[in-house]
Amino acid sequence: MKLKFYGTRGSMPAPGPDTLRYGGNTTCIALTGDAGERIILDGGSGIRVLGLELARRMPVECSIFISHTHWDHIHGLPFFVPLFVAGNRITILGPPDPLAMQGIENVLLTQLAYPHFPVRVAELKSSIAYETLRDRQTVRVGSLTISAILMNHPALCFGFRVQGGGKSLFFTGDHEPFGNIYAPGDPEYEEYAAIVRERNEGIVEFIRGVDLLVADSQYTDEEYKTKFGWGHSTFEQCIGMAKAAGIGRVCLTHHETTRTDAELSRIGEELLRRHAGEDIEIRLAEEGADIEI
Amino acid sequence: MSEIHRRFLNAVERMPAFPKSVHQVLALTSNINCSQKQLVEVIRLDPVFTLKILKLVNSAFFGLAREVTSIHQASVYLGLNTLKNVALGLAAIGVFPRDNPAGLDMDAFWLHSLAVATATRMLGEQIGVPHDEVTDYFAGGLLHDVGKMVFALYMPGEFRQALDIAAREGRRLLDVEVQVFGVSHAELGAVLARKWNLPKNLAVCLADHHAPRAAEGQPLVDCCFAANQVVKRIGVGAAGDKVVEDLPEGVRQRFSTDVAGLVAALPDLPVEIDKARVFVRLGEDVA
């Protein structure tokens, strides 16, 4: 299985001279299975570039797994060229919108509406299928198996475990470890802590032993002090999650919008220093980078 | 003030207020720095609210892998933002008792209201109402007949008569109400809207949903009027009025078609209504 990052940025695209190395496009990851199956994780602005590449060899058949429907994970979708061309077969899978009580099909319908975009869904010529996912549901795409698990974010958000050819990876989508809303000493603290523990451990068990963890690590420990509850993890929380789940390789992504290449490189070096001698390979996601799993 | 109006104002005064917990949820959720702990505490102390949230969270719309049995679990599973929006969505449902002495079938009443809410929203989308305003269209449709609850709860005998006359003579319930009570459910809806401090466009919708000419140029009123006729024509739920009215010229022009045309233009309506039925089920055991 091969992975390529087309978008590594969190929250909002950040083009410019300061983001050339790690990339300015928002989340989009392409996976290719051993039999050529094509899976795309998230439709951030990076999916535009991927779409242009795929359009050179049409017809395109692919499945786009949307972790959640916040802008930075979907705003490239209307610019994914294969959607517009007859003969392409595209499946979009993702979480429901529990408030509108609608499925994942509502994403494109909302984006491709008159006030926002000049083309309507009805005018797209490709064949589009939708599948609204449930917690712990497993889907097959050719020889690949993709399992969804509900993560912790201010929207229904899935992490995806992908297995194929004897290899596996887990992509967190956006995720912050579950936390306790009560303080030690509150009568409810222990009960709440037990539920939090069960949820965090449930995720660790779900991802145990994968070959690669691709994780949202938007914040430094210092930044996290004021970003509690915003739905993103720190670099160290992701490395800790990998170690707890016996994962030897972690790729840190969803880079904070304002983070420059120089700052990210400095953070990367510091992480390597801090975890030197531990049995874990740590790297920061770079747009355009290929990883063989 | 005439005696009749005094009588109805008294009845409106006796109508249930939004419960305190609903007020608190509305206040908390309008604060960007809403504390998850505070929100959980408000919900936890209101068993009705708790039960409604657990039912919704365990419904197919959330697709959770395991059953959530406590508000603390729901809080951990969903996080603040989702919980906040779910609480807001559920706040207004279930304010009214499910039984009433007039014998108005409440399941059928809310199903009709929900169907009109869904159709009003869909018509709003069709005429290009911005997405963030579409929620008001749903709310307007959901509450359009709420004035009938005043009759059903506080003048049950006369309302029963009015329902019978409308059914027997095939007349608009609104006209029979004016004949029997001297006031219509639309007028009472407007008074309730003021009592509950609903936004002005919703108040106008409640007041004029049978008289789009009076609210000329109000797209929400036109959509609600048209939705009401569409739902009566396809016969989903019932709120005591079976007369399908023709669209007045202004409404016809807005949609460029008549009631039959609108039914054909909304092929997804039954499916959408089915999706929204969960709200009726939510209220079943908890009122």
Structural description of this entry:
- With 293 residues, chain A is of the alpha/beta class.
- Chain A has helices at residues 47-54, 105-111, 189-207, 221-224, 235-244, 261-274, and strands at residues 2-7, 28-32, 38-41, 61-65, 89-94, 127-132, 138-141, 144-150, 158-164, 167-171, 212-216, 249-253, 281-284, 290-292.
- A 7-stranded mixed sheet of chain A has the order 6-5-4-3-2-1-14.
- The model of chain A has no long low-confidence stretch (mean pLDDT 96).
- Chain B is mainly alpha-helical and 287 residues long.
- Chain B is 67% helix and 0% strand.
- Chain B contains 17 helices and no strands.
- In chain B, helix 7 crosses helix 13 (219-234), helix 8 crosses helix 11 (185-195) and helix 9 (156-169) packs across helix 10.
- The two termini of chain B are 35 Å apart.
- The mean pLDDT of chain B is 83.
- Chain A binds chain B through residues 95-96, 98-99, 101-102, 110, 113-115, 132-137, 149-150, 152-156, 178, 181-182, 188, 191-192, 195-196, 199, 229, 231, and chain B through 35-37, 40, 56, 61-65, 70, 72-73, 75-82, 85-86, 89, 128, 130-131, 275-276, 278.
Q: Any idea what the radius of gyration of chain A is?
A: 19 Å
**Helix-strand makeup class of chain B:** mainly alpha
Number of helices of chain A: 6
Q: What class do helices, strands and sheet pairing of chain A give?
A: alpha/beta
- The span between the termini of chain A is 5 Å
In N-to-C order, the SSE pattern of chain A is EEEHEEHEEEEEHEHHEHEE
In percent, how helical is the residue content of chain A?
A: 10-25%
The low-confidence runs of chain A, each spanning 5 or more residues with pLDDT under 50, are none
Which term fits the overall shape of chain B?
A: globular
How far is the N terminus from the C terminus of chain B? 35 Å
- Multimeric organization: heterodimer
Largest sheet of chain A: 7 strands, mixed
| Outline type of chain A | globular
* Rg of chain B, alpha carbons: 19 Å
Number of strands of chain A: 14
Mean pLDDT of chain B: 83
Largest sheet of chain B: none
Proportion in helices of chain B: 55-70%
